[in-house]
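Page 47, continued from p. 46.
Same chain as before, 402 aa.
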Amino acid sequence: MSDRTPADPGSGARRQASVLRRLVARATGRARAAARPGTGADEPAAEVIAFPFYPNNPYQSIIYADLAPTFTLSTPETVTDLLTVLRTDAASPRILHLNWTAPIVQFGAETPDEAHAAADRFLAGLDAFTRGGGLLVWTVHNTMPHDLRFREAELRLARGITARADAIIAMNPDTAALVEPDYPLPAEVTVVQEHPSYRGVFRDDLTRSQAREALGVAADAEVLLLFGTLRPYKGIERFLEDFTLARQSRPGLVLLVAGEIGPGFDEHGLRRLLDLDGVIAHLSYVPSDEAQRWLRAADVMMLPYRSALNPSLVYLAATFGLPVLLADLPSLHYLFDEPWVAPVDFSRPIDLGALLDSFATDRAVVAPAAAAFARRTDPAIASARFTTLLTNLLAGLSPLAA
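Result:
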């Protein structure tokens, strides 16, 4: 097989036919509902099926916060569970909110053929769901999964999802242009809903001095932070070389590393990498009520990513008024107008000391700008926009409706 699957010239016609089938199914469903005795309070709430759903992911907690009482939330644990749900008839309207796609074809398959078969099974399940009047909403979290093993099968899946979706949510305003060479997003169903900040989600009642004392960090130290799940695509190994070099001229430089070990790293190897002077590491999950220790103790958040589309940690940094040194990737340019975000080419060795000197870390200047950004992307705004989108879809309105 070639690495790039050609565009399907019949996809447009199939999309139109799919839309017509769904319109008929929904109209039939509404007619049946009208014929049933009892409306309003007697009507069952519409169901939102979230997959995959991660209980510890604060983003999902935010966007689903306003679903009740209009919607109920169900969270199938596995792809098999989800397919069973999709093929089961339901008395109430249903919306599938699809998030990360990696579990569908990247997990479990051992060969390209198995991955393609998994994609086909899933798309067939979507067809059964939409034939029954179900609605499909997809949030594009990544251009491609970070743990990409079967590219062609993933492209097949992504193109199939976009052809069937009633709404596609992009959090990065450049998403459509970034994925267009691989799977174009139909403009008539694609909306931009920016990633939320974490105001009010993470506990925040420690002072800077209290946070540093709790971690054993000197009050006058210059402190960098690597936070969140530790995975190779985040560029940690390359950055540690820059940190080690910088400490030769800045012996008071401290690096905090806090997060669970993700795919691609093992604990022994990662601990060996982090066995450096000036590094304080906590290699396990950090609950939201404990994150403030690390965020309040730091001067700068470091994000030396090799790839990223929606860097949620930028929004977490804003929540705590923390400036960010962010990888200068084309996918992240929409953030570089922010005065508290500085682009850095982490793909080659950098003079970290000179960079820190040139980057304004004065909290009196940076914190208000970051706080304004966090207010603009407040979680309450994000959850309300998401719920409004679902409500509009149920009413037969375009996802582009205000």
